[in-house]
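4.2 Preliminary Data

To establish feasibility before requesting continued support, the project team ran the inverse folding procedure on a target of 575 residues. The structure was first converted into the token representation described in Section 3, and no sequence information of any kind was made available to the design step. The complete token record follows.
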């Protein structure tokens, strides 16, 4: 009987492609999906490189020379590097500590702590930055007002409109990335070496420092890189907290190039170094995480015993709660207070209570009503199209339908190394001129969101397909079904929960997106994130808070729905 490898070789000799019957009816669909994905990624990146190197006089490096010699531009680059380094370090400290406490100690309320970390992860960073302007603004910030009333001091306790304030707020919404990576590693580390250290007389902290930390070092370095990249690509937080203090970063500097008169050549030249730096750091992270030198031989199957905190359990728990209060409790509380108050800076008593902010934001102010419609329309459309394309691409790569199909993985994950602002620059250049002019319409945002969220849908679909055996597909093909029919009738129903999760994650990514939207929106295509940014300039605190609460509520409802669906699927599988 011929083996699968023999069949593949024979198919190649007869002109057949691996995984496909020769020229079956579904072939145009697979090739079309692959071509669409490649064009989706290549066009904006090609436009950026061309614009950065091309001027009226022809090919030259003048734009790069200006970027790296002009004082304010250099200051923006330096600020970005300094901020990102500090955000990475703080995120590693906070995320690593919380991950160790949750996974390796007997700290109580672990599920609650994980849920609060997830809440911090779901919170759009620009919304957290806005909340902190109400909490720690130097004059009207409620924490500073409370500090002055308690101490009688005329100075502010903490001014969020500073470099340190910007770094702190960015770290508060970057550490969940590190937490996730470190927690996964700590759950796999065996306790054997830790037990040996304790037997030899090492204290708990020394054991953690000399044993657990080195074993988790690759994940710590990888987490630092992720937090660094997250900080590198953020626009909303630096714009809300940095610009009032005169602090520019690369992303805010690129944004200024779109003000009248636009300088797309400089925007492109600024984008290329950011893109290259991101790609290099992603490659470094993969290399570090791919090493095996820091893992224990028996780590996968060894026992994992919890460290007893003893008398320190309560103080550590209080410390963790206070830490999470900075990213969740305080920002959520101030947003809710501002949404329900006539004057947000005054105590929320009956005289100051109002629902007019909800009425104004949701029903009266035309910009917010239009933005809500656009946001959910784009969210539904992008999530549906993104899940469909990601499903087709994941199926192609997972089933290896034709030669070179594995390379599509690179294109599907490429947006991970493209900061949102850089992607927006490329799309602006491509779609503001013939043959396809999309700027000024909602469709350019659709293309941007589809491109940016593709890795989320692809990763979810690919992992789902890997868990589904091909036997039923093979049976359907034996009785005459082509690959597309097998996917529709057999594989997709089996992968339903994973594909629904992909849809939900793409939807959440779309409704909270700002860095792409801020450069590509038009007056008729504003979305909620852009309206929040605009209302900040107008001082409409109540309306902003209402819109922020709406984003958070929708995000949490979807996440809880996905969690419920996944739990139900697990129960059904066990039964």
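Position-by-position output of the design step:
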């Amino acid at each position: 009987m011929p083996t699968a490898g023999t069949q593949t070789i024979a198919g190649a000799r007869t002109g057949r492609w691996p995984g496909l019957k020769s020229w079956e009816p579904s072939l145009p669909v697979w090739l079309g999906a692959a071509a669409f994905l490649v064009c989706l990624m290549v066009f904006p990146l090609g436009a950026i490189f061309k614009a950065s190197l091309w001027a009226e006089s022809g090919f030259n490096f003048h734009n790069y020379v200006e970027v790296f010699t002009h004082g304010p531009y250099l200051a923006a680059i330096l600020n970005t590097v300094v901020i990102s380094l500090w955000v990475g370090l703080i995120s590693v400290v906070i995320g690593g500590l919380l991950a160790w406490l949750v996974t390796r100690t007997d700290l109580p309320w672990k599920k609650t702590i994980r849920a609060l970390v997830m809440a911090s992860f779901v919170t759009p960073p620009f919304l957290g930055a806005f909340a902190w302007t109400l909490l720690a603004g130097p004059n009207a910030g409620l924490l500073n007002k409370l500090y002055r009333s308690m101490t009688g001091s005329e100075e502010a306790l903490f001014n969020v409109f500073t470099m340190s304030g910007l770094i702190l707020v960015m770290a508060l919404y970057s550490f969940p990335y590190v937490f996730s990576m470190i927690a996964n590693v700590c759950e796999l580390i065996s306790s054997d070496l830790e037990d040996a250290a304790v037997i030899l007389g090492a204290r708990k902290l020394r054991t953690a420092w000399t044993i657990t930390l080195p074993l988790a070092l690759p994940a710590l370095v990888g987490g630092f890189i992720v937090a660094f990249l997250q900080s590198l690509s953020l626009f909303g937080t630096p714009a809300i907290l940095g610009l009032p203090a005169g602090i520019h970063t690369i992303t805010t500097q690129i944004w200024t190039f779109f003000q009248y008169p636009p300088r797309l050549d400089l925007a492109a030249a600024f984008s290329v170094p950011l893109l290259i730096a991101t790609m290099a750091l992603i490659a470094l992270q993969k290399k570090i995480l791919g090493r095996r030198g820091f893992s224990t031989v028996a780590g996968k199957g060894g026992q994992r015993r919890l460290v007893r905190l003893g008398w320190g359990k309560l103080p550590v728990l209080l410390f963790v709660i206070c830490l999470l209060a900075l990213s969740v409790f305080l920002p959520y509380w101030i947003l809710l207070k501002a949404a329900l108050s006539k004057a947000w800076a005054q105590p929320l008593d009956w005289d100051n209570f109002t629902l007019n902010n909800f009425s104004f934001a949701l029903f009266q102010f035309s910009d917010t009503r239009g933005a809500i419609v656009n946001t959910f329309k784009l969210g539904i459309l992008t999530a549906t199209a993104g899940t469909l394309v990601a499903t087709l691409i994941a199926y192609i790569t997972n089933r290896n339908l034709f030669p070179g199909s594995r390379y599509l993985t690179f294109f599907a994950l490429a947006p991970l190394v493209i900061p949102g602002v850089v992607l927006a620059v490329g799309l602006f250049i491509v779609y503001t001129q013939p043959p396809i002019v999309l700027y000024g319409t909602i469709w350019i945002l659709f293309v941007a969101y589809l491109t940016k969220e593709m890795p989320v849908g692809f990763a979810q679909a690919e992992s789902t397909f890997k868990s589904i055996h091909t036997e039923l597909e093979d049976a359907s093909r034996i009785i005459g079904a082509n690959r597309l029919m097998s996917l529709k009738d057999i594989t997709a129903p089996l992968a339903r929960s994973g594909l629904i999760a992909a849809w939900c994650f793409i939807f959440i990514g779309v409704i909270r997106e700002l860095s792409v939207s801020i450069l590509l929106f038009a007056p008729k295509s504003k979305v909620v994130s852009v309206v929040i940014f605009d209302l900040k300039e107008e001082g409409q605190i109540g309306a902003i808070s209402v819109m922020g609460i709406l984003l958070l509520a929708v995000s949490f409802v979807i996440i809880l729905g996905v969690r419920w669906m996944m739990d139900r699927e697990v129960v059904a599988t066990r039964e």
